[in-house]
Amino acid sequence: MRASSVLALFALSTLGTVASYGDVTVEKTTYLNLANCYRLSNGTVDLIVTTDVGPRIIRYGFVGAPNQFAEMPDAVVKTEFGDWKPLGGHRLWHAPEVIPRTYSPDNSPVEVKLEGTNGIRLTQAVEPRTGIRKEMVVKLEADGTGVTVLHRITNQNVWAVNLAPWALTIVAGGGTTIIPQEPYKSHDDYVLPARPFVMWHYTDLSDPRWKLGKKYIQLRTEKTLSEPQKVGMLNTLGWAGYLREKTFFVKRYGYEPGMHYPDMGCNVETYTAGEFMEIETLAPMQKLEPSATAEHIEKWSLFKNVDGGRTEATLDAAITPLVAASFGAPKR
Fold first, then answer.
1. How far is Cα 19 from Cα 115, in angstroms, rounded to an integer?
2. Domain 3-327 class?
């Protein structure tokens, strides 16, 4: 480990001490009544990770501005394995979803290490009921709003397991998830299907929270509508966004042609119920041998003062250059 990283870890052993290396500072802090959190900031945005539980990222936002992630410190889901606490924010699961395995509680402390000059590594102990170890490496760019989250799942069983890393973010309510449609092609030019579009038994496309357009699929939160809605799809364009109070949160993620994805072929899913909204991305399914590791990467960005207007055309005009500016031009 670099000498600066060793010194930074020593400094962070004292609550409230700030370690600065490069243009990113790391500070031990308390958040959502969790005493041993770490705040990473570059002066433009900050994010907060937990170490008392997790691995979790429970804040991402502009410095001094509201959290773009939901905060749910009192929520509890009862499972056969014990209480699972959503908390809000970003977490790592393994797909496909199975009860109770998927909801294995992550209520124990995680190991924390500085990673390079701008990141932090969070490593969970092996889940006692599943034999799986989860890990996140979170890196904040020195300038701008960019964050890279590397998700790792290691099989510590003595047998192979079929799974896929599954990254889930609970965003603050009051906004709209935006997932791009595949580029339009005329029936005269192309007759094969574009992608899977997957619905759950409770999906109701007549629900007013849905807006299905030529360029985007949109799902908004609605406090008065508690019935859940969810869809998933294979998205070769590799991004999804969330627009809330003129702040635009973008996730980028991979697509590997020819690979088998969970849930009938989904690499992105979105779910809402009341003010709850989740944006989920998935890696391909794989047979993970004992001691083998699977990885999944997301890249995040935030934009201020984004007015999507009232039509799909105005939304497209507002967000297309932002996606292009931060992550390279989206395929159109």
1. 13
2. mainly beta
